[in-house]
Amino acid sequence: MLDVHAPHEALHTWKGFFIHIATIVVGLFIAVALEQCVEALRDHREVAALREDLRGESQQTLLDARRAENAQIYELEWLRRRVLQVRTAIFKHKPLEPREPYDAPVFASPDIPIWRSAKAGNRISLLTKGEMNAYGEVEYVQRKVEALSDARKDAEDAVRSFHGEFPVNGSGDIDFTQASVQDLHRYLVLLTTTGVTVNRYLYWLRMLHGAEVAVIDGKTNPDDLYASESKIAGTSAGDPL
Question: Is residue 203, in this structure, part of any structural domain at all?
């Protein structure tokens, strides 16, 4: 707040008194107006910087989501072929074929740290209601993605643990020659469970993809966001295997 100083000469008349009061009041109005202008300018710069940061985060999230989608599509196809091998071994009473090489694309599961930091610091109050709703929808989908990412990792770890129960042959692959029919049935369950979790993860990655596309395009209406999500993700997670 700016300081307002009244004139130092003595007041001898009512006119002088009122001039003195008016000077103080006008000075205070000017001081308040200047301070509000400074705050408005600071808020304008802060919200502009926040919008730029959030837009950059949306673009990175979209890039990460696309990379993750490609990796899940690869894994689902690999799982489909492996499940077919295990089913053939069980129901046609044949030796289990060696696993195919697994070379899924490297990816990082999407995250939204800038939005969450702004929300924790109450900076999102600078945004419009529509913007807050749009990024709030992205955060909702992001939480689904994170939960399913954890479920996918747990399912994959269960398959790895099963593999660890068997020796490794000379070619470096797991030796299933001593696996019983019950072992193969358990393996089939683990593989199909992994397929289900990977497919659900893929579905919500695509939902996030759609939400971020809408946000980047400047859409804040919930119906527009849902339409974009549905367009990318489809109506259901589908049959993983």
Answer: yes
